[in-house]
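Hi U.,

Before I forget, here's the chain from the pilot set. I'm dumping it here mostly so it's searchable later in email.
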Amino acid sequence: MERGGLYFPLGNATPTGDRGPTGPPTSKRAISPQRLDVPLTVLPGVGRVLAGRFAALGIHCLRDLLLYLPFRHEPPSRLCSVSALRVGEAATIRVRVRSCSVRPSRRRNLRILEALLGDDSGTVLAVWYNQAYLEDVFAARPELLVRGVITHRAGPPRFIVQSHEVLSGGEEGLHTLGLVPVYPATGEVSVRLIRSTVAKAREFTVHLVDPLPARLVAKRRYPSRCEAVMASHFPRNESDALAARRRLAFEELLLLQLALLQRRARQKRSRVRPLPPPGDLCARFLASLPFQPTPAQRRVMAEIDSDLMASRPMLRLLQGDVGSGKTLVAVYALLRAVEAGGQAALMAPTEVLVDQHALRLSQALSPLGLGVGTLKSSMTAGERRAVTGRLAAGELQLVVGTHALIQSGVHFADLRAAVVDEQHRFGVRQRDALGGEANGRPHVLHMTATPIPRTLCLTLYGDLDLSVLDELPPGRTPVRTFWFHLCAKRRLGSSCVSVWMRVSRRVWCARSLKRALPLTKLLLRLCTPNSPPVNLAAIEWACFTGICPPPRSVRPWRILPRVGPKCWSPPQ
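Structure:
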């Protein structure tokens, strides 16, 4: 099927042909939002079995169905006669079936339905693939609306059908004319079925309550909510679809901002015990560092101190590139809670990252007399009971863990500060569970290395204060990004070899084998998309022995330079 049409991320674009008015019926019935909460079985042709299949898509009532918006739309096609068809141009024809038959093809499990379709201007041979069941449907010689593209190869011209519709006096042109909506579907609920069911429920859009004030809608010249929803499914033209998209997008963002403001207001009403100013423990930790914190780190530490000494809980997002020193700031925030006599926790998304944090914290804090505990799902029941018991008794002041920290049975005696690393890897409720009311609402610091534009941060993280580490510590090697363009005129193998040669030299010279291996795998997968599978075991062996081999798919071997004490040859 030809791709195209309008792609709207919020799912609102849908040009259609002349299907009549797209808005709700102009009756004077009172709006009754309760009518949208009834099950789908009130619609004709929808029984319990079909309603259960819709439930798998999250559609349980009429409201869910009407707000299940399409993610794109097929582009409109020209409605013409058979004689006006042009090769390679998408078109829709209104024809009647003259004859049809099913024939096998050279490919296994592929059956082709060929039907002779005609109107007053002529006939054309139409082709359907793997739809042999239509032979029984076409036995009555019905009238069709057929959408597709005519091709001219060996033999007579053929009309390759993309979609069709049997005309029976119902929703004519729903699946073929104008901008046809395309919905997320499953094997049991097809796009065609969703489209037909939404068309049956269009009269219920009048009961959709508009959350926007009428004054605001009129000022911004937006359509009403019911009109916007119907224009999202079945608009008359592209301008209607765009207007509907803008209106629903504005509504979605406005409601999100209002929800964030409400959440922020609730958080400000919460009260916590303020922490005292930084003491001897933090001073000794900063003095033990073999380097001086950057001005950006000191600025963020000052912002954190200001939050910790307030009576409302800290909710701050720390953003910084890899290597900017986020971990140092996080450790400082944890120590502020520990030296105040409370407990601190650091939650990471993976056990590997937990082990890494625990090792680094132990090395940095053991001279200060602090121990670090870990809590992971892979621990045995006895190890888990020992750690949770020490947390509940207040004997363990600092713990690093995964999602196990927020599972049932984990209780802190006095959790005063929590740090969430790689916060985008956790859900909203998972992040909030560590700082929930049950644990006394501690100060929470979220960390991320993902660059977030300020406007997006204010939109999605409007309930958090933002701190940015905008400089790297001195002596850090700057990150360099290389773009390899695989020119169509060059052989793919030679392009892969050039990439491989550069990676090999970097691995051999820098000996950064542990970090270079994932990059090597990624480059191989990106640069050899159509090549045979790469022997990654040989690559791992070569990386750890200091010799970096090329992928097996790259030939010839002789053009590779020496990258180690001897040239690499494929393992026997």
